[in-house]
Amino acid sequence: MEYVRIPPGVQLPPTPRLGDAVYRCSSSSAALETERNLIVPGVANIYRGSGPPPSRFIEVRGTLRAAGLPVPETHRVTKDREHLRRLVQTVGGFPVILQAGTRFFGRGVMPLDSNAALFSVVDFMWAIGDRPRLRRGDTWHVQRRVFVIGDRVVGAVESTIWSRTVRVSRAGRDDGMAVFAAKKLGLSFAEIELTFDPEEGPHVADAHIPTELPEIRGAQLAKVLVRFLCDAGGR
Question: Is 148 exposed, middle or buried (0-12, 13-18, 19+ CB in 10 A)?
Fold first, then answer.
């Protein structure tokens, strides 16, 4: 399902019926509200529990911390140069990692090693309406994007942030943390981002509904998701 503007006089699609399924492939607030109007009792969807999804985006980090999961310390940034310099010192100096907000769908993880680079990227993000976060970057080297459907992990993509080495895998020893995080966020389909510190172990850095469905070693996420929704809808 994608959000579109429907001109006056154009007939709307029929109301979903028992056994139908809804999946929102856009992360905009308008698409979220459209989805709320389509999800009625008996319509299969990717949310746990009954009823429509929340009327706003989930406050991911606060929810995960309340559930007892380790979450890296992050800070909202502004364009103010002195504010940015203070934040860099707060997290231990360069290098730092800048995490993009919702406009990048979880893909904007950028290692930065100078004020010039930080100022430039932050200015660009603010110009396009994104609100990034900054976190420590000296030890958080490995990022693992784990795809959860239902109560199991169906694939993962692991990368080394500084070298940009990417490795595709099917399972990992910390994937149970990803499944637990998805459950606490009320999602049956989620992409959970884990980061790893040599001393502190795995942390849940971010979570969202995937907007891309890659093929991971023969496991086509789109097919697995459709099968999940069909089963949920009794098809």
Answer: buried
β-bridge pairing 109-112 and 96-99: antiparallel
Residue 149 sits in which domain range? 60-70+140-220
The β-bridge partners of 204 are 194
Tens digits of per-residue pLDDT, 71-104? Answer: 888 898 999 999 999 999 998 899 898 988 755 5
Count of structural domains, the chain: 2
- Taking the CA atoms of 46, 50, 51 and 53 in sequence, report the sign of the dihedral they define: negative
Residues 6+ apart with CB under 8 A from 137: 91, 94, 95, 96, 97, 111, 112, 161
Both 65 and 178 in one domain: the answer is yes
Token pair, residue 171, equals 């399972």
Q: Do 105 and 206 sit in the same domain of this protein?
A: no
Q: pTM of the full predicted structure? A: 0.80
Return the HEC string of 34-77.
HHHHHCCCCCECCECCCCCCCCCCCCHHHHHHHCCCCCCCEEEC
Handedness of CA 113, 86, 92, 109 (dihedral sign): negative
Strands lying side by side in the sheet with 165-169: 165-169, 152-160, 142-149, 189-197, 201-208
Q: What is the pLDDT of residues 108-164, one digit of tens each?
A: 678 899 999 999 999 999 998 888 889 887 666 678 889 999 999 988 888 876 665
Last residue of a domain, one of 136, 163, 180: 136
**202 vs 64: CA distance, rounded Å:** 13
